[in-house]
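seq/struct pair 1
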Amino acid sequence: MNRELLNIVRSPCCQHSLRLYSAVDEAEDVREGTLTCEHCENVFPIRNYVPRFVAPENYAVNFGLQWNRFRQTQLDSHSGAPISYRRFFAESGWSPEELRGKRVLDVGCGAGRFAEIALSCGANVVAVDYSSAVDACLYNLRGRGQLQVIQGDIYALPFVPHQFDYVYCFGVLQHTPDVKKSLQLLPGQLRPGGKLAIDVYPKGNFYALWPKYWLRHITRHIPAETLFWITERAVPALLPLSLLIGRLPVVGRKLRHVVPILNYDGVLPLSHAQVREWAILDTFDMYSAIFDQPQSVATVESWLRELDLAEIEVFRKGFVVGRATGNTADFDEAADRGETATYRQAS
């Protein structure tokens, strides 16, 4: 943790400032120590450079397992293909140039596949995840730019409000207990005029017929380590059948979904070995998540329109994608009341 983070972090319990104690520094970062709130008296550890604002065991433990075992699989720098780069900019609508020098919040960073893209554009990135995937993210990206990594809860983000120029949350919202609440807490992190981009799994007419959703009634109750063991053996056995069906003319791409694994052959520019690796990773992801709640375009749009946002766009691009801009009206009114410092104290 770089000490500059103290300018924007607050106790997630009471939003008061935190003091750093027992710091063990290494180079320019704090490797170990504690962050203590003298108002609510909560103490938050810093372990392996990461401030930890949540308990180690939580509903996202499966994600910690998968991203620490497949910590580089989905990084563009590892795969050699611009898969994450294309998705990041197609969904956000942003440009690499506009991110340079901006403070960016990655909510649900996982192993850092999208944080890598933002860092490569020169952004100052704060990456947050609920799981121990933060360790994989730090391992992958430390030293690659202006990066801070935090283990925190989307329902209690440990920041001064309105500190970020850009906020994105990709591949995460459907896996939280309350998707609407999770989404509607994000704009509070935006500076006036800041930009928000999110995605969520799409809810279609036939999604409930997909084997994923009826098998999950069983698999999400299996301990993560056991399910991972099963997945590692089932995917290699089933992948040849999925590949064979998928290559049938016209109907193959749809029909291969009857085989209960994920298969990106012909969808993503991956080698055969990478198709197998991604299949194990995302099949485990698919069956292990405690929560998996797809949403429609209309629902996501209605949730965003309940908020004080501008330039709202919601559309289907594989995922249901939402974009918006923070409205400056509330900030202008606050300034008239002499409350500007509330929003800018950590700028």
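seq/struct pair 2
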Amino acid sequence: MSITPIDVLIIGSGMYVCGRGTEGYGTVLPAILQAKRDGLVGRVLVAATRHTSIKEVKDRGARLSHMLGAPAAIEGFPQNGEDAGAYKDALRQLGPRACVIIVVPDHLHFPIAKAVLESHYPVLLVKPFTATVEEGHQLVTMAEENNVYGAVEFHKRWDWANRQLQKIIADRKLGTPLYAAIEFSQRKRIPLEVFRDWAERTNVFQYLAVHYVDLIAHVFKATPQRAMAVAQSSYLVQQGLRTPDAIQAIVEWDLPHSDIPFSSTFLVNWIDPNSTSAMSYQSIKVVGSAGRFESDQKDRGQQLITDDQGIEDINPYFTQGYVGEGQASVQFDGYGIESIRTFMNDVRRLFDQEISLNALQAIRPTFQQALISTAVSQAVTESLERGGVWVSVPSLQRGHA
């Protein structure tokens, strides 16, 4: 059955979009150009702050198109010079059957998402959702009033290991869940180079840990109650960045059908050596009254050793290119690709009235669901500011503090 394609505007041009600063191609652009090749996507537009960034996206897009075996023109904004508001020009160029994917620094999420919702386009916002619960409530309200689909790109929901955890918890194989321990870290080049211009306007919990905050809320159907956190600041301060090297946080949750508080501990940093064998070290352990679950999500069992790169631990399940049919092209796959592809297909189904907004609310990381991760992040930040005391997680209900 033939489908009518949707147009896609990407706002942002960094590492996650096209692999800028790396030898790869990111996740967003490969997912969209492949969807264009497969007939799901029509026009592809990209908005950045500088035309030089647009040029790099187009260069990488041309290489991707060759790999995918299908031409794909990219319309870029601005067309010359610099313009922080270029995304507004791009929005005006979209037709009615279009969606937007926002991949910008954390502190710009709220104003740009607000502008997209005002234009009545479905939007996917790369995590974190917003910096504060108040901002999140405003976006949720706008999406509801404008009858627009808004979601957050929490791709760990699509990881097969985490989907297995969800099934284990649903089947109550661990008995009563008691606690979870999460470790997540990245190389120091992320705050020092990739996010240097805005690293001080976020912290490593908001940047990394929110992935697993969302996962816990989703897998356990849990409601956060309170949080406490401590941090260490040394290396990054010496490098001129006023943001913690590492944060440790404890979050207590209420679980359905249990009167025992569930506790999750997060150990996160972004000062791993640049010579580490993987961009991200990440793992989750869950202990219950009848068993335990452990998932090393950095060591996926594949390793590449070369003269140029040394030892690399490869995650074949996130975003990877594989040999396509007849070996004539590349097929990108993985849970990173699946997250983007699912959003675009959901938008297409909404336009074609094959699914409703209410139905998506129950199964996707919508703005309403993403409020949980923002509320926890806000409580953690407040605990840090108050010297590590317990802080109640802000209410997810509008009109409540």
